[in-house]
Amino acid sequence: MNVQQSMMTQALRRWRIIPVIVIEDAKNAVPLATALMAGGLPIAEITLRTPGALDALQRITQEQPEMFAGAGTVLNVRQAEQARRAGAHFVISPGLNRAVVDYCLEHDVPVYPGVATASEIEAALETGLDLLKLWPIETLGGVAYLKFLSGPFVGVQFNPSGGVTGANFESYLACKNVVAVGGSWMAPQEMISARQFERIRTNVRDVVMRVAALSAPKKRQYEGSGIQEAMRPR
To answer: Which domains, from first to last, does the chain contain?
Structure first.
C-alpha cells in the first residue's frame, strides 16, 4: 500500500462518513464544500454522474484545498485520469475494474473499488488493497452480510454504501469490519440544486455529533497525535 493510500484510509477512519454527492451545477461546488466543512465533515465523493461533476471537483480542490475531495462512479481509466487531473484525493468505483485500480496505484491515487461477492473480494485482494467499497449493501443483505464476510475475510475492511441512510448508518459503523459508510442523505441532489447549504450544514453537524457519540471511547487515541493535520491534502 502506498503512502497516499494509507493516509487517505486513516482519514476515512477518522471521519467515518463519506458524503456521496451528485451535483448538476458546478457553481454550487464551493458553497457545498463550505457547508460540509462548516458542519464538521471535510470530505466528499463527487460522483461522475453529471456533465458538471469534473468541473465541480476541480473547483473544490482548487478553492478548498483542505477538503478531502474525491471522485466517485469512476468506471474506466479515462475517467480515473480525468479525476486525477482535476485534483481528486481519492477514487471510488462501483465495481472492480483492474485497469482503474492499476492506474490509480501507479499514479499514487488512493482507490477503493467496489465489490459485492466473495470472488470479487478475492480479486481485489490480489491488487494489494484491503479496504473496499461494498455496494449496494442494503440489497446484499446489510449488516448481516457484513457479519458473514468477517468470517472468511479476516482483516478485510469495507466502506459500505447503497441504501445507507440517516436511520441506519450507526448500525453499519458498529460493525468491526466497517471503516466508513457512504451516503447521500446529508446532501441530496435536490437540496444542492436548491442551494439549501445551511440545511446541509445542519444535517452534517447532526451526523458528525452522532458519529462522535459512537466513537467517544476511541477519540482519545487521536488526541495529540497530529493525525488530522497529517491527513490534510497538500
So the answer is: 3-231 (3.20.20.70)
pLDDT of amino acid 228: 47
pTM: 0.91
E strand spans, the chain = 17-21, 43-47, 68-72, 91-92, 111-112, 114-115, 131-134, 157-160, 181-183
Sequence letter at residue 150: S
Rounded Cα distance between 223 and 218, Å, is: 10
What is the pLDDT, as a whole number, of residue 128? 96
DSSP strand pairing (181-183 vs 17-21): parallel
Structure-block grid coordinates of residue 142: 446489510
- CB within 8 Å of 218: residues ≥ 6 apart: none
What is the CB-side half-sphere exposure of residue 142 using CA atoms within 13 A?
9
Residues in the chain, how many? 234
DSSP per residue over 103-163, as a string?
HHHHTT--EE-EE-SHHHHHHHHTTT--EEEETTHHHHTHHHHHHHHTTTSTT-EEEEBSS
Residue ranges of the chain with per-residue pLDDT less than 70: 1, 217-234
Cα–Cα distance measured from residue 41 to residue 183, given in angstroms and rounded to the nearest whole number: 13
Active site residues: 45, 133
Return the pLDDT at 227.
41
